[in-house]
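Sequence design from tokenized structure. All designs in this work follow the same two-part layout: the structure record, then the generated sequence. An example of the structure record is given first.
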């Protein structure tokens, strides 16, 4: 114990410099030995630091997420392995779909009814027709339609035979009345059930809408049938199918043919 009194100078004991450094180093080594751990302070996101268990942790400060990796990398899947697994799954799915398609095809082949129906649909889609004739008609033109049916437009099986053998489609073309489902539309529907020779358009009938009706007819006919020629006539015209066929056959090799009268570009 050192006591300093007034007027007296107490003696000082100073440790040697080398001894002090030695004691500091020994304390540091002892601390390292007993704690047995090291710390790395992450100063940025994604930088690994070592935990007391020896594993690594990755810190994402933006999302407050700590991802741990305790050093067991045997269960991890590399990027290439993941790609291989994904490809295997895709191949398995394709094989399953292929087997299902084959089974469905075999079922159709074994069922005569289904097979015949599919063949008919395929033949319709692949069929190339010679001409499609649209007969422009109105709700009030029942007598004209009956006259056409009685003269140059074949009916029932004869019309079907004309389509199959000659590739000639003939239909009366009409839209809908301004009152949807009204008496005029019902009359056409009843007539259609008897004869089955109408092509109904998404068009409202009207005298001032004849040009629009013609455009709609051609667009609809092209979407329904793949033909070489598309013809439009009125229901008061009687057509000689043989003469018309000969006239059109002369132009088969031409890429684009328009025969008729076009007014004002319509």
């Amino acid at each position: 114990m050192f006591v300093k009194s007034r007027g007296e100078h107490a003696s000082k004991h100073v440790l040697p410099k080398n001894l002090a450094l030695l004691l500091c180093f020994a304390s540091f080594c002892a601390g390292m030995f007993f704690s047995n751990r090291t710390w790395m302070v992450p100063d940025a996101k994604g930088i690994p630091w070592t935990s007391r268990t020896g594993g690594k942790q990755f810190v994402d400060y933006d999302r407050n997420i700590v991802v741990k990796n305790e050093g067991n990398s045997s269960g991890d899947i590399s990027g290439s392995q993941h790609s291989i697994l994904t490809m295997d799954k895709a191949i398995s799915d394709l094989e399953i779909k292929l087997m299902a398609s084959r089974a469905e095809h075999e079922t159709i082949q074994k069922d005569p009814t289904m097979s015949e129906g599919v063949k008919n649909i395929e033949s319709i889609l692949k069929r190339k027709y010679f001409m499609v004739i649209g007969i422009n008609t109105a709700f009030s033109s029942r007598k004209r339609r009956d006259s056409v049916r009685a003269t140059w437009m074949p009916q029932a099986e004869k019309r079907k035979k004309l389509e199959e053998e000659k590739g000639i489609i003939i239909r009366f073309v009409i839209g809908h009345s301004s009152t949807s489902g009204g008496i005029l539309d019902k009359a056409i529907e009843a007539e259609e059930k008897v004869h089955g020779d109408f092509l109904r358009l998404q068009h409202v009938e009207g005298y001032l809408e004849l040009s629009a009706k013609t455009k709609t007819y051609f667009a609809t006919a092209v979407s329904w049938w793949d033909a070489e020629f598309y013809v439009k006539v009125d229901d008061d015209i009687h057509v000689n199918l043989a003469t018309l066929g000969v006239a059109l056959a002369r132009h088969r090799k031409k890429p684009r043919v328009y025969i008729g009268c076009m007014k004002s570009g319509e």
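The CA atoms of residues 78 and 84 lie 10 Å apart. We note this feature because it recurs in several other targets discussed in the main text.
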